Amino acid sequence: MVLTNETDFPSEEYQFDLSTYLADRKARVEAALEASLPVTYPEKIYEAMRYSLLAGGKRLRPILGLATCELAGGTVEMAMPTACALEMIHTMSLIHDDLPSMDNDDYRRGKPTNHKVYGEDIAILAGDGLLAYAFEYVAAQTRGVSADRVVKAIAHLARAVGAAGLVGGQVVDLDSEGKPDIDVETLTFIHTHKTGALLEACVVCGAVLAGASDTDLERLSRYARNIGLAFQIIDDILDITQTQEQLGKTAGKDLQAQKATYPSIWGLEESQKQAQKLVREAKAELAPFGSAALPLIAIADFITTRSH
User: Fold this and answer.
1) Phi, psi dihedrals of residue 213, rounded to the nearest 5°
2) Is the pLDDT of residue 5 over 50?
3) Which CATH architecture has domain 18-221?
4) What interhelical angle do 147-161 and 76-97 show, nearest 10?
5) Mean pLDDT value across residues 204-212
6) Distances, alpha carbon 69 to alpha carbons 35, 97, 116, 146, 287, in Å
């Protein structure tokens, strides 16, 4: 693909093959994830953890972490343990989100959800196990990075997962179900915390490990917040325009659960426009990085053009 952006890069045309980049990085992430979690006694819990962790998916979150580490002068190798941990935490959130007491979903990534295979009790414990192991993995497996940077990355990651981030967003999401008067501010709070906080941590943690400056971290945080919200808007659109087979999960769940979505507030056309605006703003934050930011630029564009 050819990327051009007259606003951000006025004098150059950049060539970047996103498909090849994503395929390469995904393969490296998959291999690292496979090796990260061997099965031992009690086998049932490790098998349940691996069932969801290795179920596929785009692996955008770990790929973003690798990309920002390289952008800031680091390497794939120094960021890979954190990239794996990010996917472990994301997987935990999906396992718990799918539980009957939460969103009550039967399918995820085209397969039966964890609790449908292993039962609710083991699914809860599998999520707990992945969450704890994620932090252990960053602390124990990161190489070539100073301890202060590792601690800073762990602290940022922990905040993104807790009540100030993912957990807080999920609470407001549950409280908002079935209420017809949810406004766009509340909806945005839900998604910037439930989805966006972890995605922002993916971007920031990779750069932290490489020693990025505070100014660069702020730029990358704004980039991540914009693409995170755009990602959720597109998710809302796809939930009502795609089939279960296309999505790999139950379609129309938001409508069934009487959840507020961006299309329900803005309509489909305006939702698409808002997502595109967020992506433009995200890419503008990357202008100072020049061609080194090409993977992040291409991923931002991919968010609004994906079909699942």
Assistant:
1) -70, 165
2) no
3) Orthogonal Bundle (1.10)
4) 20
5) 97
6) 21, 29, 37, 14, 17
Farthest-apart Cα atoms in the chain, separation: 59
Closest CA to 191 of 232, 221, 163: 232
**Which one, of 204, 185, 92, 199, lies nearest residue 137 by Cα?**
92
Residue 273 has pLDDT above 50, yes or no: yes
Domain map (residue ranges) of the chain: 18-221
| pLDDT value at 12 more than 90 | no
DSSP string, 29-93: HHHHHHHH----SSHHHHHHHHHHHTS----HHHHHHHHHHHHTT--HHHHHHHHHHHHHHHHHH
Helix axes 120-141, 147-161, angle to 10 degrees: 160
Chain CA centroid to CA 224, Å: 10
Closest CA to 103 of 55, 200, 44, 169: 169
Measuring CA to CA, how many Å separate 28 from each of 31, 39, 81, 140? Answer: 5, 20, 12, 20
For 84-102, write each residue's pLDDT tens digit: 999 999 999 999 999 999 9
Percent of the chain with pLDDT over 90: 76
Helix (H) or strand (E) holding 19: helix 18-36
Q: 1, 295 in Cβ contact below 8 A?
A: no
Q: Please give the average per-residue pLDDT across 73-88, as a whole number.
A: 97
